[in-house]
Amino acid sequence: MTAISFDILARSKTSRARAGVIHTMHGDIETPAFVAVGTKATVKGVSVPQLRETGVQTLIANTYHLHIQPGSYRVARAGGLHSFMGWDGPILTDSGGFQVFSLGAAYGKSVSKVTRDDLNEATTTASVYDPDVASQHGKLAVIDEEGVSFTSHIDGSLHRFTPERSVEIQHELGADIFFAFDECTAAEADHSYQREAMERTHRWAERSLKAHRQNIEAQTTQGIFGIVQGGRYEDLRRKSARTLSGMEFDGYGIGGSYEKRDLDTAVGWVTEILPEDKPRHLLGIGEPEDILQGIERGIDLFDCVQPTRLARTGTVYGPGGRKFMITAATHGGENEPIDKNCSCSTCHTYTRSYVHHLFKSHEMLGATLASIHNLHFLVSLVEKERTKILA
């Protein structure tokens, strides 16, 4: 018995877009789908019942953060992530690779999956192994051939991730789908380092896959995705896609960080090569226009912190997807929903004036209501595209 399976129900006649269903041990994911980010086994500010109301089908938790706190062994003792957080639908976990990138290459630069154009500092890659710094405490990640040594952002304690350890932790977390350990690179890294990191990611992918297949129980309940790397370079992206396609993964993630103008091409190169019968996940991408482009190029799953991160600052999606600040003075007297055409519980119950008041008075409920709305907006956006493909 396979842990997950994927059925394609319809394909677009004008693009690579497809609609399908991923079958997991905890239910189906109708694709394309937006995956809510539940970093620490919680979608920030949104309870599980509220999350269900948004229409979210599945979420992705963070291996690095859950390893640091409370520890994967505690999650396992609670019965795995589903029991631990009270979510009975499908769950994904990442490998921790992007968090290593954040502690190494990206530390102190405030970068994300889509990097800023003005980020041109000299240090653009994580440190190569150096015995003089390997045991230092602080926010630091050091990469070698076997894995990554890093220090906790909470207490400075030293930790070690290898492909085998990342898989072991994700087995304990018990997600339906998890990702092989990879090295995420900065978009500004040159071709030489991107190639080096990509080849290391391929070796780690083989080790991750072997570690998973050796656990008989886990491989019947959890699917494993490999992650395509290669940065902004077409030759590397295509090579990575071909190499990983030759491995028996259950699906594929498209990783790394990008410059905005490169995102479209990087995705297109990869989806031309990856197996048609396996699901594809574009990691860390959540802008509406990027999601729509990804769907056109054959992406099935998307995840991003964007909807809740924006919501906590008072930024919401208005009619037509236009973002605006609910905290602006003009909205203080508007007795209409954030979007009158939206069916989320926030728009069904509350006015712009009330949500504006909550933010201005620093009430926690404001961020929750805005998060519910933003999540529902992206879920609905993707559902509409799925309906078009099926039609």
Task: Name a few traits of the molecule.
eight-stranded parallel β-barrel; 2 domains; 15 helices; 19 strands; alpha/beta; 391 residues
Question: What this model shows, in words?
Answer:
The chain is of the alpha/beta class and about 400 residues long. It folds into two domains: about 230 residues, Queuine tRNA-ribosyltransferase-like (TIM Barrel), CATH 3.20.20; about 60 residues, no CATH class. About 40% of the residues lie in helices and about 20% in strands. It has 15 helices and 19 strands. An eight-stranded parallel β-barrel has the order 4-5-6-12-13-14-16-17, surrounded by five helices. A hairpin with a 5-residue loop joins strand 18 and strand 19. The two termini are about 30 Å apart. About 10% of the residues have low confidence.
Strand-helix topology:
Blueprint: E1 5-11, E2 18-24, E3 27-31, E4 33-37, H1 48-54, E5 59-61, H2 63-68, H3 72-77, H4 81-85, E6 91-93, H5 97-103, E7 114-115, E8 127-128, E9 141-143, E10 148-151, E11 158-161, H6 163-173, E12 177-179, H7 191-213, H8 216-219, E13 223-228, H9 234-245, E14 251-254, E15 258-259, H10 263-271, E16 280-282, H11 288-296, E17 301-304, H12 306-312, E18 315-317, E19 323-325, H13 345-349, H14 352-360, H15 364-390
Parallel strand pairs: 4-5, 4-17, 5-6, 6-12, 7-15, 8-9, 12-13, 13-14, 14-16, 16-17
Antiparallel strand pairs: 1-2, 2-3, 9-10, 10-11, 18-19
Helix pairs in contact: 1-15, 6-7, 7-9, 9-10, 11-15, 12-15, 14-15
